[in-house]
Design brief:
The chain is mainly alpha-helical and 206 residues long. The chain has one domain.
Length: 206
């Protein structure tokens, strides 16, 4: 299946501004690599969803005691497949915005406390857990990357943000991508698990 390439630099990073900067070429390379790696992983996840849906439809047993739970998973993955193109586009648009130096992550806002409902809290817990699990797997690599990115930010501010490649940003991009489709909280948790297994825990190469 042909895939459309989404350039993360557009809007999130001024190409002219970065190329005129001393470290502009390095920043361009980082964005290009991020685009290529995440496009490959995200496309593979969506391809896997279509295969999983086909397998579920063949193997579904109406007499199974877990039929209700399985039906929810089938409906969730079916909607993911039906909205594949839109979710794919939303993900990269969201990621582009999250890479902007002016962006402040909801998980990084320390200035004010706000009340969140139970559903939103469940999403936040799911994303935080994904982040913690990823750090357990390749935390040393992440720490080394953060040190280099922080140094690059000092040299390149304000066209690059030390938090631009934070794993949380990638999770939030997916959260934003699926938001318009009114998934239930239970369905979102299924999708977060799917994203975790097929994208997030495969970021070692990145």
């Amino acid at each position: 299946m042909a895939t459309e390439s989404y350039t993360l630099k557009t809007g999130g990073l001024s190409t002219k501004k970065s190329k005129d900067h001393q470290h502009g070429q390095l920043i361009e390379t980082i964005y290009d690599f991020l685009n290529e790696e995440l496009l490959e992983l995200f496309t593979a996840m969506l391809d896997s969803a279509e295969r999983t849906l086909a397998d579920y439809m063949k193997a579904t047993d109406p007499d199974s005691p877990d039929d209700e739970k399985k039906e929810l998973e089938i409906r969730t993955i079916r909607l993911l497949c039906d909205q594949r193109a839109n979710i794919n586009t939303n993900f990269f648009i969201a990621l582009n915005e999250l890479l902007s130096p002016s962006f402040t992550s909801a998980f990084e806002e320390d200035e004010e406390l706000r009340l969140v409902d139970t559903d939103e809290m469940e999403e936040m817990v799911a994303i935080t857990t994904m982040h913690a699990n990823a750090l357990n797997l390749f935390g040393i690599d992440v720490n080394h990357l953060v040190a280099r990115i922080e140094y690059l930010e000092i040299l390149s501010a304000p066209i690059f943000d030390s938090q631009a490649l934070s794993p949380n940003r990638i999770c939030e991009a997916f959260q934003i991508a699926i938001k318009p489709f009114n998934f239930s909280t239970e369905s979102k948790l299924i999708l977060f698990r799917y994203f975790d297994e097929r994208v997030y825990l495969k970021l070692a190469n990145l």
